[in-house]
Amino acid sequence: MSVDPERSPTSDPSRAERASAVEVRRSARRRRTVSAHREGDRTVVLIPARMSEAEERRWVGVMLDKLAAQESRRRPGDAELAERAERLSGQYLAGRARPASVRWVTNQNTRWGSCTPAEGSIRLSHRLQGMPEYVVDYVLLHELAHLLVPGHGPRFWRLLEPYPRTERARGYLEGVAAGRLPDPPRGPGD
């Protein structure tokens, strides 16, 4: 995300205090624009080298606001998630999977999603928010399939065959999970 400081509205400098990890990078080559992006759990703000400290504080606040607004547009709420589930069920499961509730949860740190078929409830981990849509769709479709088939047998996997990005989504999630694991212990010759 990039913004021209001369054309952007002013922002309250106190907004910068909300950021837990902000790195400001100054560039002599950067003349007019300010940009920001996320690198893991850190926000990087790129500014022209000539910018004063007061302008830097103001622009950090502006860019944090812009990133937060952009991310909130990308992260659907529970209502949008339920609509998405209905669409996926219709498209891939002939509308047979009808959850009673679909929602984001923050207490799932080892699973991407879970389903309670008896209640018809589906829960997706908040860790999926911000991931590519095809990944969220895969996890949601996976949980919808559990409303029809409880286990992970051949019948279950046949339900997911029509979704064209199953393998890609599974690979993405495996990569994310592997990136969060501690490094394996090193042997004497390593």
Automatic annotation (TrEMBL):
Keywords: Hydrolase. Gene3D superfamilies: Metalloproteases ('zincins'), catalytic domain (3.30.2010.10). CDD domains: M48_yhfN_like. Residues 80-171 form the YgjP-like metallopeptidase domain. One of its GO terms (molecular function) is hydrolase activity. Residues 1-38 are annotated as: Disordered. Residues 1-26 have a biased composition (Basic and acidic residues). It comes from the Bacteria. Pfam families: YgjP-like. InterPro entries: UTP_pyrophosphatase-like, YgjP-like_metallopeptidase. This is Metal-dependent hydrolase.
